[in-house]
Write a structure and sequence with these properties.
about 260 residues; mainly beta; five-stranded mixed barrel; two-stranded antiparallel ribbon
């Protein structure tokens, strides 16, 4: 089970295995790109079906990536062939409060299933079925929902939510030559107009995708939850990021609809 992120980890100053002169867990970003305030893909919470995929890739860290756009962080991604994608992930609460868990030493059987699958780089569609790679926060107990922390509301321009924590995680992956990201969410193919990266293909809905009500209920489903996982082979260690909306029920039926 997950041990959620804590700012006082004793291993924050441990040397990085690929570069002993660098610390592996520092919350200071490696760039100063905090002025982007453009558009972002609308969250897929309007009744659309989740185009469920996992993206195996590495982050691109530049002066323009990651960048903050409203209450999201946009990040360039790359595979070994040079093909690039991008993701957008919540870093602050908007109209609907967002809860998060960041675990820098994540332990759960799903990680072994991911490794055993030997996924190719790039996108892999998922079947939204149990006992495979599809994620379900509730049924697989991927994270203790009751212990998640609340993201602060958008409004204070100096408050960047978890942007620095995510940037640190991504920078750690970038520094470790053998590390990889596994990003679970909804693939989109029309995102160029939403990003300064000018790339059409990417991934969003990197959060729980069940238990919603009202107009968002149409996108509910089981075994289609989003998350960001990172694997460091040299350390045999996983990091994980989980997100959910406050309005999403923690109990759902076999169609992912809220109970109670």
């Amino acid at each position: 089970m997950s041990r959620k992120h804590n700012h006082s980890h004793s291993y924050n100053q441990a040397p990085h295995p690929q570069n002993p002169q660098q610390t592996q867990h520092s919350h200071r970003p490696l760039h100063d790109n905090r002025n982007g305030r453009g558009n972002f893909p609308k969250p897929n919470r309007t009744g659309q079906s989740v185009n469920y995929n996992v993206l195996k890739c590495r982050p691109v860290i530049t002066q323009s990536s990651p960048q903050i756009q409203h209450d999201h962080l946009q990040v360039l991604l790359e595979i070994d062939s040079g093909t690039r994608y991008w993701m957008t992930i919540n870093i602050r609460s908007g109209q609907d409060e967002v809860f998060y868990s960041i675990d820098e030493n994540y332990q759960h059987p799903i990680t072994q299933r991911i490794l055993a699958a030997d996924l190719p780089q790039g996108f892999t569609p998922l079947d939204k079925q149990p006992n495979g790679l599809s994620l379900d926060y509730i049924r697989d107990k991927l994270v203790d929902l009751s212990q998640m922390d609340k993201l602060k509301q958008t409004g204070d321009p100096k408050d960047e939510g978890i942007a620095d924590m995510l940037t640190t995680l991504l920078s750690n992956v970038k520094r470790a030559a053998d590390a990889r990201l596994f990003i679970f969410g909804s693939r989109f193919d029309d995102g160029a107009r939403f990003s300064s990266f000018d790339l059409a293909i990417g991934i969003h809905d990197i959060h729980m995708n069940q238990g919603s009500g009202g107009g968002h209920a149409g996108s509910n489903g089981i075994y289609q939850d989003g998350a960001l996982l990172a694997f460091y082979p040299a350390e045999q260690r996983w990091s994980a990021v989980f997100l959910k909306f406050a309005s999403q029920s923690e109990q759902t039926d076999d169609r992912g609809n809220a109970i109670g």
